[in-house]
Design brief:
447 residues; Protein-Tyrosine Phosphatase, Chain A; 3 domains; six-stranded mixed sheet; 20 strands; globular; ATP-binding; cell cycle; ATP binding; peptidoglycan synthesis; cell division
Length: 447
């Protein structure tokens, strides 16, 4: 019998992981990448004897697939995707594919902001509780690779809207939706409703015994929920009002009041991750832990000793009385809003990069209150100048992390904060947000 042919588009962490699992499951596997494949991934494919091509897609090797696994970064409008759609070859995500070959339970976390922090915190709590848990998706290692090589009882998955777009039969045992704010609108015809519908796919196929955890303060989430049939048990969280079967803020105390559990009350001063946005992230994480019946003392301890994530409001150094903070992971306007909201000093803001159709209006009040100068870090900074020229006296263009840090150093006064929080993607000057953050840190350490 002829082997079923699986073609994988994209040879990064997700694509190579999918190739490993497809080979293990006995498929005829071929990997195609439009760009060049990074050294370690190429080596991995060669070690496994998996055929691949790079620097272009060959139609004859792709359009004969039984099924295609597409890396999340490849847009729907890519010619190869259009050609596959035209002839009706199914296209799925790596998460969808991997889920077919594991019986592990899944906790799936999505949202425009806070995904990585919440995913890491949930993983931290579960690991501390002695659960055999894997971490995958947008964070850590590929889900498919871990299904191929490991044997976890449970996975915590950070899920982006791009992954959700190519998921059909996948089901989350516990789904978490943190918030919906404008992001990646260039991939959704510049319509927030399209992006919101994509986020709501996190609830697809859930049953009445599964859980859906969501923010009851987030207008866009509540709007999208009205358009979605949700079968799962709903667990809301709020800092604005009391909720049932979820978590809420009572003064400075977070109250977890799930029906199936002993109530847990925790002061926000006990949280390792501070700031309003992290109260939300901690609430969502605590509800997950409650649902999984982790002991209250273990939840409290883990939430109290969690370390902040690299590139997310990461304190780099204090030099001559000035704090330098790396928030390179802030690739949308809302993330930068959170960053500015959490800083209590005057700010020299380093921002810019690839603008994804950003609306900078929501930053204006905070910029007026806190920002002394903006240092642009990107090839085209016109829209940042237009947005803030009436609010900030100094807006300077720079073209490297080193130059941006040097300029910020000269503009900052004792007691200020230099904040890298770009509100944009990084691909104009850097490989990715990690590269941008790392270059920023190196430049700070050279001061």
């Amino acid at each position: 019998m002829e082997k079923k042919r699986i073609v994988i588009l994209g040879a990064g962490e997700s694509g190579v992981g999918a190739a490993m699992l497809a080979q293990k499951e006995g498929f005829d596997v071929f990997v195609s990448d439009f760009g060049t494949i990074a050294g370690q991934y190429k080596q991995h494919l060669e070690d496994l004897g998996i055929r691949y091509e790079e620097a272009g897609h060959t139609d004859g090797l792709i359009l004969n697939a039984d099924e295609v696994i597409k890396s999340p970064g490849i847009p729907e409008k890519a010619p190869v995707v259009q050609a596959l759609r035209e002839i009706g070859i199914p296209i799925i995500s790596e998460i969808e594919f991997a889920s077919r070959y594991t019986s592990a339970k899944t906790i799936c976390i999505t949202g425009s902001n806070g995904k990585t922090t919440t995913t890491s915190l949930v993983y931290h709590i579960l690991k501390n509780a002695g659960i055999n848990v894997g971490l995958a998706g947008n964070i850590g290692f590929s889900f498919a690779a871990q299904v191929a090589t490991g044997n976890f009882d449970l996975f915590v998955l950070e899920i982006s809207s791009f992954m959700l777009d190519d998921m059909y039969d996948f089901r989350a045992d516990i789904a978490v939706l943190l918030n919906i704010t404008p992001d990646h609108l260039d991939r959704y015809d510049y319509k927030l409703a399209n992006y919101a519908a994509s986020k709501m796919k996190i609830t697809n196929n859930q049953r009445s015994v599964d859980y859906f955890i969501y923010c009851d303060d987030d207008e866009e989430t509540l709007k999208a929920m009205q358009l979605t049939a949700i079968k799962a048990i709903k667990c809301p969280f709020s800092i604005q009002h009391e909720v049932e079967n979820g978590a809420y803020l009572d003064g400075s105390q977070i109250v977890f009041n799930l029906q199936s559990k002993d109530p847990l009350t925790m002061s926000i001063s006990e949280l390792a991750l501070q700031g309003k946005h992290n109260i939300y992230n901690s609430m969502a994480s605590g509800i997950v832990a409650n649902v999984l019946e982790i002991r209250n003392d273990m939840i409290r301890e883990s939430m109290g000793d969690m370390k902040n994530i690299e590139h997310r409001l990461e304190h780099v150094a204090r030099i001559s009385g000035v704090d330098y903070i790396n928030d390179s992971k802030a690739t949308n306007v809302n993330s930068t809003w959170y960053a500015l909201e959490s800083v209590n000093t005057d700010v020299i803001l380093i921002m810019g990069g690839v603008d994804k159709g950003n609306d900078y209006n929501m930053l204006k009040d905070l910029v007026k209150q806190k920002v002394r100068a903006i240092v642009c870090l990107g090839k085209n900074n016109k829209r940042i100048h237009e947005a803030f020229e009436d609010d900030v006296e100094i807006i300077v263009n720079t073209h490297s992390a080193y130059e941006a840090v040097q300029v910020a150093y000269h503009l900052a006064k004792k007691g200020n904060t230099v904040l890298l929080s770009p509100a944009c993607a990084s691909f104009d000057l850097f490989q990715n947000y990690e590269d941008r953050g790392n270059q920023f840190k190196v430049a700070v350490k050279e001061l």
